[in-house]
């Protein structure tokens, strides 16, 4: 008995198929490599093909059950092929031919044609076209004019609303309630839970209040600010543009005065005077509150605090726009913001003739919304979403946009 037959591996009988429909049985030891098996298969189905050494590499064996391509260097055993398994012998797809230089040039040319034109190409193509207000600064000034015009509309509508509400016999009582609502919703109030968390950590209450206001009531950011400014000599200084103690005192005095009010026997003139005083007190409560972070950032650039507050008021608390205003011609001026719109203008007449606006002007809440948006434009979203004031603001916006396009 020959030695190799004694130690030979297990013989597997494999069914081999081709794409052309040929099928036969191959008996191979399990230690046979896939490459050797492939050569035997090619000798059976393509006699003489092995004269070309590339024939073996151009074909592959696939295990039919697992759909796995067998690796040439592995044995049948390593590929986990079992007795009576079915293998498929197929020719590999030829790689795509390399593109010719002419084709490459044509493809590059097509990509260049589809590429967006650069600035020089645009200027060259539009050099002979007539100019039609293409200056970007004009669009910028138009936006600024829109903000200024809207403020003028609010100023004039506040005057109209005050006159209409003064005729309401219940106006004083209505505005007493409105004034009390403002006391409850003061922006200067601090989140008590957040304040308690910081004071329990050992931070002084006054310093914790300042940190929360600077960081929009975020406990984490306020704590980081307190740690960062622990050794800052100005850490306890009041925020720029804010005097909380004075504001609190004034608010308390205002509330006391309003609560006192005239007696039920007071005449119409006294009620009218009291209503005027309530208007003034509500207006003082709605005074513009500059963003403390923006104030500090602009003051660090060297600008005076009063100039910074004016710039933020003109530019709706937007720091970048306020910086441009400070460095530019400073128009519109803060005084321009208190001027109303021409009452004889078509825009103002169209607004007053709108039924929704007319009805809204008899609602004290609308007046409060106008006052709030006048001094704090960033709160406009709140009033736009309010079911009572939202429809009024929507009509004003539509009328303005309609007349601005004509």
From TrEMBL:
Q: Where are the transmembrane segments?
A: none
Q: Which InterPro entries match?
A: STI1_HS-bd, UBA, UBA-like_sf, UBA1_UBAC1, UBA2_UBAC1, UBAC1, Ubiquitin-like_domsf, UBL_UBAC1
In this chain the UBA domain maps to: 183-229, 289-329
| Highest taxon in the source lineage | Eukaryota
Where in this protein does the record put region Disordered? 98-119, 234-272
Q: Where is the composition biased (Low complexity)?
A: 243-260
Q: Where in the cell is it found?
A: Cytoplasm
Pathway assigned in UniProt: Protein modification; protein ubiquitination
A Pfam family found in this protein is UBL_UBAC1
Query: An example of a Gene Ontology BP annotation on this entry?
Result: protein ubiquitination
Q: Which Gene Ontology cellular-component terms appear in the entry?
A: cytoplasm; ubiquitin ligase complex
- Could you tell me the keywords of this UniProt record? Cytoplasm, Repeat, Ubl conjugation pathway
Name the CDD domains on file: UBA1_KPC2, UBA2_KPC2, Ubl_KPC2
Where does the record place Basic and acidic residues bias?
106-119
Tell me what this protein is called.
Ubiquitin-associated domain-containing protein 1
This chain is encoded by the gene named: Ubac1
């Amino acid at each position: 008995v020959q030695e190799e037959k004694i130690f030979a591996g297990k013989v597997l009988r494999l069914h081999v198929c081709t794409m052309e429909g040929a099928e036969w049985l191959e008996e191979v030891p399990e230690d046979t490599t896939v490459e050797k098996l492939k050569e035997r298969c090619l000798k059976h189905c393509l006699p003489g093909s092995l004269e070309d050494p590339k024939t073996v590499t151009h074909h592959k064996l696939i295990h039919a059950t697992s759909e796995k391509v067998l690796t040439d260097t592995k044995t049948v055993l390593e590929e986990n092929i079992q007795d009576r398994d079915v293998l498929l012998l197929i020719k590999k797809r030829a790689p795509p031919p390399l593109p010719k230089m002419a084709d490459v040039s044509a493809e590059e040319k097509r990509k260049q044609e589809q590429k967006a034109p650069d600035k020089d190409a645009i200027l060259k193509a539009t050099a002979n076209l007539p100019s039609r207000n293409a200056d970007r600064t004009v669009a910028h000034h138009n936006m600024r004019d829109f903000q200024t015009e809207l403020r003028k509309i609010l100023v004039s509508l506040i005057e109209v609303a005050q006159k209409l509400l003064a005729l309401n016999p219940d106006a004083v009582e209505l505005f007493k309630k409105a004034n009390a609502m403002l006391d409850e919703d003061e922006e200067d109030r601090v989140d008590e839970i957040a304040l308690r968390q910081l004071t329990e950590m050992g931070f002084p209450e006054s310093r914790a209040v300042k940190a929360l206001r600077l960081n929009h009531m975020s406990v984490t950011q306020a704590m980081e600010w307190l740690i960062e400014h622990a050794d800052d000599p100005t850490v306890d200084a009041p925020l720029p543009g804010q005097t909380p103690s004075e504001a609190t005192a004034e608010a308390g005095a205002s509330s006391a005065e309003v609560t006192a009010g005239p007696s039920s026997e007071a005449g119409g003139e006294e009620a009218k005077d009291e209503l005027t005083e309530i208007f003034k007190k509500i207006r003082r409560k709605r005074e513009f509150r500059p963003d403390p972070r923006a104030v500090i950032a602009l003051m660090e650039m060297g600008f005076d605090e009063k100039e910074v507050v004016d710039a933020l008021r003109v530019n709706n608390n937007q720091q970048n726009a306020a910086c441009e205003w400070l460095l530019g011609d400073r128009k519109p001026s803060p005084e321009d913001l208190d001027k109303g719109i021409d009452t004889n203008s078509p825009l103002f007449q169209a607004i007053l003739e709108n039924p929704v606006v007319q009805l809204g002007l008899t609602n004290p809440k609308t007046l409060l919304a106008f006052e709030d948006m006048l001094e704090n434009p960033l709160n406009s979203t709140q009033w736009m979403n309010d079911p009572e004031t939202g429809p009024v603001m929507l009509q004003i916006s539509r009328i303005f946009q309609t007349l601005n396009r004509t």
